[in-house]
Amino acid sequence: MSHAAPTPALEACRLSVMRQGRLVLDSVSFEVPAGSFVGVLGGNGAGKTTLFRAILGLEAAVAGTVRVEGRVAGHRARGAQAGIGYMPQMRRLVAGQLSGWHMVAAALGGGVPGLPWYGRAARARVDAALHAVDAGALAHRPLASLSGGERQRLLLAQTLLDEPRILLLDEPLASLDPARMRETARRIHDLARARGLTVLMSTHDINPLHGFMDHVLYLAHGKALLGPVDEVMTTPALSALYGAPVEVIHARGRVFVVAEGGGDTLHSCDCAGHMA
Ligand SMILES: Nc1ncnc2c1ncn2[C@@H]1O[C@H](COP(=O)(O)OP(=O)(O)OP(=O)(O)O)[C@@H](O)[C@H]1O
Ligand SMILES: [Mg+2]
């Protein structure tokens, strides 16, 4: 007797998504185990953001399905797939004198635009989210006075408001310095472990995720490959994914994915190459 396999947090089954007449995701299949921390890699236009939007139901599939915790994610007109906290890549940052607290609160559903009034339960949720990312000290600071990294922390707090079980973070490390990247990756990792969250984090630099990441989900040419870092970031695996011979070169702790014969660098990333 074998036990039933646990339900994956996310499951794409022959998922195809088209944008501007192009199949950005072309019959992509993968399973993300619950509680896994996944680095989502791929060059510009590879479909990382499109995949996140498809998981959220914001992008319609032309074929195939996405399952979130076993349930088929239908196409939604707007936002809020239950159980998922989403940090979009394109972030509208309201600046000015608005406080950090109010910026986080702005992501609460059901508020009345223009009326900065929140009930006791709503206030407690905002306070808890700020506390979770160690941003209590930013609550009363005007956004205009915060650094990019401090604002990123508030954006992360926003994703936690509804006690999600899955986080989709689209390039949350962009524009951070290397030390802050590492610190942010660690914060997200520790938070996810403590709460048993599943995390998909897209990034162009996997070095800050060293030691935190369980899996890589690599997107190229409409295809996807998900697996342990050591298995995905290899010449045979990525050649198969690109559908052309590519070489994965490890040099000085960095990994380069180059076309065979010394052609263009298809992808480069800082990565120790032995991450588990
Ligand atoms: N709003 C949009 N309307 C139409 N096509 C889009 C839109 N956004 C992206 N696309 C197209 O979909 C494809 C995949 O884009 P996507 O944003 O998913 O890539 P990405 O992997 O997130 O890239 P990046 O690393 O630059 O963020 C690209 O060819 C892009 O031009
Ligand atoms: Mg993107």
Structure in words:
With about 280 residues, the protein is an alpha/beta fold. It has one domain: P-loop containing nucleotide triphosphate hydrolases (Rossmann fold), CATH 3.40.50. Helix content is about 25%, strand content about 30%. It has seven helices and 13 strands. The strands form three sheets. Strands 6-7-8-3-9-10 form a six-stranded mixed β-sheet, with helices on both faces. Strand 11 and strand 12 form a beta hairpin. Helix 3 packs across helix 4. The chain starts with 9 loop residues before the first strand and ends in a 6-residue tail after the last strand. The C terminus is likely disordered. It binds adenosine-5'-triphosphate and magnesium ion (MG).
What string gives the helices and strands in order?
Answer: EEEHEEEHHHEHEEEHHEEE
Uncertain regions spanning at least 5 consecutive residues: 270-276
Q: What bound compounds does this protein have?
A: adenosine-5'-triphosphate, magnesium ion
The class by helix and strand makeup works out as alpha/beta
